[in-house]
Write a structure and sequence with these properties.
alpha/beta; four-stranded antiparallel β-sheet; two-stranded parallel ribbon; 11 helices; disordered N terminus; binds flavin-adenine dinucleotide
């Protein structure tokens, strides 16, 4: 995807490869860049050296103005139509925007979820006490899982390792564990009832707050209080604010009671999941008083391996959370490859 980002004055491109693919010269003003990753991508395209001194103003710019529009107006219409049909169509369909004339509205979204359900490298889910004991019959792979190699999983190959290494290992392990013809284990009435009760409760919710309203409040809190650059103050506010949105669950309303293609209900079930994720995310970030990877605390700009070279574990009971930590793997399974300890990010 290629964006020419419309800032106050000069436009610039982001996203690696796209510019090269289109044979377009990249023009940019580093001080108006979106984030470090985009700067890195742009520089890679241009083969320039990165200058750290630009970053403070990049950050200020990002926080002050954010990114909300992208335009493609300095490319020929034919180039846009032939090489970017996907984005052209999406913009027309979802935003009613002609990309050759108008800016495309842009909001931040998720590229890759780091962390997840703790598993061993075979995809078997581990118990939460860090003992590496597996939960029989439960597996997780891909973005849902955390195999404890996330440093090795950034950025050009988010899911490559999930796919070619852990996907394969999980499939092999599943084939070992599952004997053909084995019936499903009986699920207790009690467990089934819990699922049906949750479903019925949300489907019959007669409150006065629409799901979309609560979802928007959740998005706004997460984007403004728990974005990439974080401080004690913003996170503390986030911890409180997200709980107010959580309380909205008590007055949620689902208008459509039908059982066929009920997007109102599906969105409500999704919100019920997401708000819990949001609560543990902001609480985990608040408790991690260091900077590491995508978690950039301006008040704790350094990585603190002594205290935080560990995965956060979060328990969630409604809006109550318990935060704990789990050891990070510091060894490999072979002598042929050594463990790579994290190093300071330098440019
Ligand atoms: C814009 C974008 C660009 C990316 N670019 C790259 C890249 O260049 N390289 C790279 O390696 N990675 C990239 N990624 C990341 C990569 O695409 C994802 O990490 C990967 O696809 C995740 O795979 P997954 O199987 O774990 O999850 P998903 O692909 O998300 O699959 C989960 C599936 O579960 C289904 N599902 C959800 N809820 C339910 C339910 N209740 N019941 C049944 N089914 C359900 C969903 O519909 C979905 O099909 C990119 C991601 C994005 C968003």
């Amino acid at each position: 995807m290629l964006f020419t980002v419309s800032t106050k004055d000069s436009p610039f491109f982001t996203e690696d490869c796209a510019a090269e693919k289109l044979g377009v010269k990249v023009e940019h003003d580093l001080r108006k860049a979106l984030n470090w990753c985009d700067v890195a991508n742009m520089l890679r395209v241009q083969n320039e050296r990165m200058d750290i001194s630009y970053f403070p103003s990049t950050r200020e710019y990002t926080q002050q103005f954010g990114l909300n529009k992208a335009i493609l107006d300095n490319l020929d219409k034919e180039i846009i139509e032939s090489r970017l049909p996907g984005i052209t169509d999406a913009a027309r369909l979802f935003a009613n925007v002609d990309v050759t004339k108008e800016p495309i509205p842009v909001v931040p979204t998720v590229h890759y979820n780091m962390g997840g359900i703790p598993t061993n490298y075979k995809g078997e889910v581990l118990t939460v006490n860090g003992s590496e004991k597996t939960v029989p019959g439960l597996m997780a792979i891909g973005e849902a899982a955390c195999v404890s190699v996330h440093g090795a999983n950034r950025l050009g190959s988010n899911s490559l390792i999930d796919l070619v290494v852990f996907g394969r290992a999980a499939a092999k392990r599943a084939a070992e564990l599952i004997k053909p013809g084995t019936p499903h284990e009986e699920i207790s009435e009690n467990e089934t009832q819990k699922c049906i009760d949750r479903f019925d409760k949300l489907r019959n919710a007669e409150g006065d707050t629409g799901t979309a309203e609560l979802r928007l409040a959740m998005q706004k809190t997460m984007q403004s209080k728990c974005a990439v650059f974080r401080t004690e103050k913003t996170l503390q506010e986030g911890v409180e604010e997200i709980r107010k949105t959580y309380d909205g669950l008590d007055s949620i309303s689902v208008k459509d009671k039908s059982l066929i293609f009920n997007t109102d209900l599906v969105e409500t079930l999704e919100f019920d999941n997401l708000i819990r994720q949001a609560v543990v995310t902001v609480d985990s970030a608040y408790n991690r008083k260091e900077s590491r990877g995508a978690h950039a605390r301006e008040d704790f700009p350094k990585r603190d391996d002594e205290k935080f070279m560990q995965h956060t574990l979060a328990w969630c009971d409604g809006k109550k959370t318990k935060i704990s930590y789990r050891e990070v793997h510091k060894s490999t399974l072979t002598n042929e490859v050594q463990y790579f300890p994290p190093q300071e990010r330098v440019y």
